[in-house]
Design goal:
Layout: H1 2-6, H2 16-23, H3 29-33, H4 37-48, H5 53-75, H6 80-96, H7 100-117, H8 121-134, H9 153-172, H10 182-185, H11 188-197, H12 201-204, H13 213-227, H14 229-233, H15 239-255, H16 261-271, H17 275-281, H18 289-317
Helix pairs in contact: 5-6, 5-7, 6-7, 6-17, 6-18, 7-8, 9-15, 15-16, 15-17
Length: 318
């Protein structure tokens, strides 16, 4: 997986050409402001060694995959093959092949979820703080500490209502950013507004929700896991937290879209890593187990094919 992600040709995946330009400092001033110091530090080392962009890809792939694989095992020891196929079907391509900085932060966020549910909150906090060094969006992972690993009836009602209300807001294209004081987020809001106004979002936002089958599959999974959460939690104690984190991701997708589709989609991807837990836990809902594994792996195959189609189309049209 490291070699596949690290040795790909620039231009063969979304964002890869952009990373080559960033490596050599040929970027828009707005994007440069939004780039983490850790990325600049890694690029400076690679440039000092006169290496190309594949050295950058290999570095990030090595770090990210080394972080992901152990935590995937921790989260699902009984279904390690299933969780690996779910990871490869979408998240490997999204993070290790496209959003390489966010990929490291997301892997650390998975560790934060694991430690948080295991009641090791300081370790969870450390994972999120380290993740911020790789991608600023990881700061939003602190929301984890406001969640409880339980799901009372009133919370289920709230969780059920997020998608229908969110879809209405999404297609209404409402910009809620003006409700947030700029001082709360520094110059980030300004940067995203400038990206939107200059048309940079068209290149970075990814495939829109209405044409993204993967998101609609996650909607179905989300509702099913809420409904069966008590049963699934017997086999996987991370399910309730994963449901709530996916709900946070959907909130970004829906309610931030009118302000910045880049920010909405990227934050949905960040919190959406929780679906790797939900897809794996869903195996427990079907008996006998070999049937559930066949179904799960078939869904992973469908997700893989759909991901490849979306990436191919994005290279042609985005």
């Amino acid at each position: 997986m490291i070699l596949i992600a690290g040795l790909r040709e620039p231009g063969s995946t979304p964002d890869s050409d952009g990373y080559e330009m960033m490596l050599h400092g040929n970027t828009d001033e707005i994007l440069e402001e939004a780039t983490e110091p850790s990325f600049s530090f890694i690029c400076s080392i690679i440039n000092s060694l006169s290496l190309g962009v594949n050295a950058l890809f290999l570095t990030y792939a090595t770090i990210s995959i080394a972080i992901h694989l152990p935590v995937l095992w921790k989260l699902s020891k009984d279904f390690s093959f299933t969780i690996l196929t779910v990871y490869i079907s979408y998240y490997f391509m999204m993070h290790e092949m496209v959003q390489i900085r966010a990929g490291v932060a997301v892997g650390l966020f998975l560790w934060a979820i694991y430690f948080y549910v295991e009641k090791k909150k300081m370790a969870a906090l450390a994972c999120i703080l380290i993740g911020i060094l790789f991608h600023y969006s990881a700061a939003m992972g602190l929301v984890l500490f406001g969640l409880r690993n339980e799901l009372p009836k009133w919370q289920k009602i709230v969780l059920y209502s997020i998608i229908p209300i969110g879809i209405v807001v999404y297609f209404s294209n409402v910009d809620i950013s003006y409700l947030i004081p700029d001082s709360l987020i520094g110059n980030k809001l300004t940067i995203y507004r400038e990206m939107r106004d200059k048309g940079l979002e068209d290149e970075l936002a990814g495939w829109p929700m209405e044409r993204n089958l993967l998101i609609w599959m996650n909607f179905v999974l989300y509702y099913a896991c809420i409904y069966y959460h008590e049963y699934l939690s017997k086999y996987c104690k991370y399910v309730v937290i994963a449901i709530k984190l996916q709900a946070v991701g959907f909130c970004f997708l829906f309610f931030v879209h009118g302000f910045s589709s880049v920010l909405g989609n990227r934050m949905n991807d960040y919190f959406g890593i929780a679906t790797i837990i939900l897809w794996t836990a869903s195996v427990c809902a079907i008996t006998p187990k070999f049937v559930s594994r066949i179904i799960s792996n078939s869904i992973s195959t469908l997700r893989f094919v759909t991901s490849m189609l979306l990436y191919a189309l994005s290279l042609l049209y985005l």
